[in-house]
Each structure stands twice: as structure tokens, then as C-alpha cells.
Amino acid sequence: MKGTLWLAWRQQRALILTGAAVLLAVTAWVVVMRTDMTDFISSHHIDTAGCKGWNGGCESEATLKLLADNTGPLRTLGSLSAALPALIGIFWGAPLIGRELESGTWKLALTQGVGVGRWFVTRFALAALCTVSGSAVLAALVAWWWSPVSNMLDGLYWHDGYVFNATGPAAVACALFGLAAGTAAGLLIRRTLPAMAVVLGAVAALRFALNTFRSDWLTPQLWLSQGDAPRREIGSGWSTGEFGFVDAAGRKHAIPDACPWGEGLPDLKTCMAQKGFTGRYRTVYPSSDFWSFQWIETGIFLGLAAALIAVICLVLKRRPLP
User: Fold this and answer.
1) For residue 88, which of 129, 117, 118 has the smallest C-alpha distance?
2) What is residue 104's DSSP assignment?
3) Phi, psi (degrees; rounded to nearest 5) at 248
4) 68: CB partners within 8 A, 6+ apart
5) How far apart are CA 209 and CA 93, in angstroms?
6) pTM: predicted TM-score of the whole model, two decimal places
């Protein structure tokens, strides 16, 4: 190892080694917790594969204890994975160039016959490699621990932020976006602390926007049931909260105004007959949509990261360092 790579390693090795140590400790914790969980499942003969959603028949004392013992720790690990992009942007991205400009240490590299472009590419590439590797391992740990108790009863479901934002390719892409956002902020602001604040706001704002508008990316499935038969159970699906009745023409009529029933009111079957309703409906995103949502948001994060990297390169090319 020599040249700009050696310099990049020397300047970033404290972060790299600290991150590796934390990741190793988290891995050991997850291995112990998941082993205890699978031993409990085996010793109590819990059919986790047949207990998805609130479909009934699985609410045993052992199953509820299984979820109570693991849901909280899983939320903690999921929160760490979801927060990783902001942490990387704050403590790695913002100082990557910002601290160099603030302290003037960038001059050391450029006096060794190294161009600005090569200096930046080497530093950013090392940081990006570690970011992708670390975030991928952490996301895999969340998914691995969660998988035996996924989408069960009152536990964590695939669309919960603790799982969705912490696993899959979108978690890795978001970490790369955090690094790029922090680096761009450090270069443009040229002061580390303000750049840290900016990248925290940027990552939080983007996460909030995606969480708010996620359901708009895809059209939910329409599930119908005939007559007054119970609606199809959601299972592992993500309900939109939209449900009600359909008439003979296929028009939807939402609850509660369409056909209220209860004490002093017509029963459900009578009410449906009076109003000409032929069935009931609900709209749901099935669990298979997890990957569609993931790849959409992965594309958004990678596109924004690429745009920020392009801005950084353009600024370094056209604006001389101070």
C-alpha cells in the first residue's frame, strides 16, 4: 500500500477500525440472541411458518413470549441499521473533505505531485467500499435475526420502518447516499460542524419523504369476497386501511357510511341486501411487494448519490481549493 491509497488509509483508519470493532460486537450479539431464539422455537415446537399475520390459531403463551423477548432487541438493531446512513454522513462524509479544507492538510497530498481528482477519488473510494461493506453486513444481520419471526402476530412486519429501512439493497444504497451527501456538504460549506448538521437534515428529510410517500409507488391489490362472507385475511400483507362493500356494478362503498350495523340496526346480511351490495373488499400490498418497493427506493438513493458525486467532481474541477 503506497501513494494516495496509503494516505487515505492512514487518515481514515481510526474510523475504519472503530467501525469494524463495533460491527464485530454487534455480530456476536446477534448470533447469541438468534441462537437463543431458535432454541426457544425448537424446544416449544412453535410453527413460525404457519403463524404469519393475525390469521388465528397461533396466539399461544410461548409464541407471545417469543415475540416479546425478541421484538424490542430487533427494533434496536433495526434502528441502528436505519440510522447508519446519517451516522456515516456526519462522522465520515462531512469530515472527508471538509476537515481537510478547514485544517489545510489537503496541501500535504497535493505537494506530493498528486492531482486533486486522484486525491479525492482514492479517499472517497476507500470510504465508499467500507460504507457498502459495513451497511450490507448490518442489513444482513437484521434480516437474518428477523426471518424466523417475520410478519408474526404483533411482531415486526416487512413494511415496518424497523425492518424495511434497515434491510435490503435500499439500506445499503441509503448509506452510500449519506456518505455522498456528507462529502458534498463538507466540500461546499468547507466547515465540518455545519456540514454535519446539513447532512443530518438531508438524510432525515429524505427518509421522511420516502416513508410518507412509499405507498404511492405501487398500486395495491383489490381483494374481494362474495356476499357477507368474511374478508380475506391480510396475513403478511400491508393493509392500506381502505375497505368496504361492492355493488353489482363493481362500485366500491367505504365503511362506515355504506352499511353500518349493530344493536338497533339491520344485521350485515340484511343491510347489504337493502343497499344492493354483492360483496366486500379491501386493498392490500402483498408481502411480495417488499422487493418492488426496495428496488424503487434503491434507485432513488443511488441516483441521488451519483448526482452528488458528479457535483463534487465538477466543483473540484472548476473551483480551485483555497
Assistant:
1) 129
2) T
3) -65, -25
4) none
5) 22
6) 0.88
The CA–CA distances, whole Å, from 107 to 39, 103, 110, 123, 192 equal 57, 10, 5, 15, 17
8 Å CB contact between 217 and 127:
no
Alpha carbon separation from 238 to 43, 139, 218, 219 (Å, rounded): 31, 21, 12, 12
Task: Residue 206: name the closest of 66, 103, 303, 312 by CA.
Answer: 303
Angle at 211 between CA 217 and CA 231, to 5 degrees: 65
Output the pLDDT for position 111.
53
CB 172 within 8 A of CB 135: yes
**What is the residue whose three cell numbers read 426471518?**
147
Widest pairwise Cα distance in the chain: 88
User: Considering just the CA atoms, what is the radius of gyration of the chain in Å?
Assistant: 26
Q: How far apart are CA 145 and CA 234, in angstroms?
A: 23
pLDDT digits (tens, 9 = 90+) for 271-322: 788 888 888 888 999 999 999 999 999 999 999 999 999 999 888 877 555 5
For the chain, report the end-to-end CA distance as a whole number of angstroms. Answer: 29
Segment holding 38, helix H or strand E: helix 3-43
Phi-psi group of 252: left, alpha or beta (phi > 0 → left; psi -120 to 50 → alpha; rest → beta)? beta
DSSP structure string for 113-179: T--HHHHHHHHHHHHHHHHHHHHHHHHHHHHHHHGGGTTBTTS--TTSHHHHTTSHHHHHHHHHHHH
Rounded CA-CA distance 255/268 in Å is 12
131 vs 86, 139, 201, CA distance in Å? 12, 12, 19
In the prediction, which pLDDT does 270 show?
79
CA dist list (Å): 185 to 103, 191, 198: 16, 9, 7
Answer yes or no: are the C-beta atoms of 290 and 161 closer than 8 Å: no
Contact in structure between 285 and 214 (CB atoms under 8 Å): no
User: Which cell is 227 given?
Assistant: 356476499
